[in-house]
C-alpha cells in the first residue's frame, strides 16, 4: 500500500478519480465537504480577481473574454492536478504598474512581455530545483511576515472598497459611499453581518463541534451544534456574489441590450523589442520577488497549514505559474499566478478540494464563451462594496496564518518583516529585512553559546557573578 504522502503528491494522475466522492452531498447540509461548500469557496478570491481584471480591461484595453477563457482553463487544470483550492489570481505588481504608473499606461504587449518574463524566471527556478531549495531554507517567521503584510494589505483595501467609491482608472478612492442605494454602506454592512453569522471566525463544523461538546454534556449542545452545522452549510460568498450580479441589472437594465453573445477572437500578441524592455524593467522586475514569495513560497506554506495531508511542492507550484503564462500571455490573457490570499479566501468560504476551483473554472468558461469581452459591461456595474466584503475575509484569513509563531523571537522577526513590507509597499524589501534580522538574532545566540562554552558552562559564569 502506498503511503499517504505518495497518494497525495501533486501532479499525480491517480488523484483525479478522488474527486467523485468529494462532489457528492452526504446530506442537505453537508459534512466535511459538499457541493455547496465547494461552490461557496469557488468565489472566495473574486474580491481581488474582479477589481484588477476590471481595471486592466477599462484602462489598458485587455480583452476580458480571452482572460476569462484562459483563466478558466487554468482553474480546471490546477484543480485536477493539485487537489486543493489552488487559486489563479492576477499578478498584482504588474497590474499596479500597468494601471497606476505615473508614466504612460502599459500597453497590452508590454503587459504580456512582463508576464512572460516573470513566468520564465519562475519556470527556470522550478525546473532547476532552486525553488525547492529556497522553500526549505527560508525561515518560517519571514514567510509569516510576508503573509501577514499581504493579508493586512488586502484588508485595508477591502475597507476602502466598503467605505469609499473607487475609480479603478486612476487607482484612487473617491467620496464616501452613501448609506442607502444599490452600492451603499447598508448593503455592504448587511453582507458583512451575513457572512459573519454563517461562517463565524472561519472555523469549520469539524473544528467547532468538538469545542462545543467538550465544555458541557452533549445533550445541552445538540441544538447549538445543529445550528452551527446548518449555518456553515450556507454558501455565503456565493450568495453575496449572486446578489451583486442581480444588482448589476437592477442598477442599469440597459446593459442587457449592449451584451453581444459569442467568445472573443483569440489572436497572437505581437511583442516588439521595445515592449520587452519596457515590460521587463517597469513591471517584471518588481513582480518577480513578489511571485517567488507570495505565489510560491507562501502558497506552499499555507497549503501545508490548511491541508497537511496533501503535500504541494514548491517545484510544482513554480512550474505551474510559469507554464500558465508562457502559454496564455502570447494570446493576450492576463498574467496570473497562485496567490496565498486567494487560497485563504477560498478556504475561508468552504473550499476544501480541487472541486472548488473546478466549479470556478467552469463558470468563467461559460461566461467567456457566451459573453466574451462584453461581460465587462456587467462587471463595471458590480457593487464594489460587496467585493470589499469578500476581500476583507480573505485578507484576514491569510493574516491569521501567524498563529503558529510561538516564541517572542519568531513574532519579532515576523512583525518587523510585515511592518517593512506594509510601509515600503514591497514584499521583497520586507523579506530582505526579515532575513537580515533573523540572521542577526541567530548570530547573537551563537556568540552567547560560544562564550558559555569557553567559560566552562553556566556554573562558572554564575560563580563569577558571586561576590
UniProtKB/TrEMBL annotation:
Q: Which GO terms describe its molecular function?
A: molybdate ion transmembrane transporter activity
Q: Which Pfam families match?
A: MFS_MOT1 (PF16983)
Does the entry feature the keyword Protein biosynthesis, yes or no? no
Cell inner membrane as UniProt keyword: no
| Keywords for this protein | Membrane, Transmembrane, Transmembrane helix
Task: List all membrane-crossing ranges.
Answer: 64-84, 111-135, 230-250, 357-376, 382-400, 412-441
- What's the protein here called? Molybdate transporter 2
The organism's taxonomy opens as: Eukaryota, Viridiplantae, Streptophyta, Embryophyta, Tracheophyta
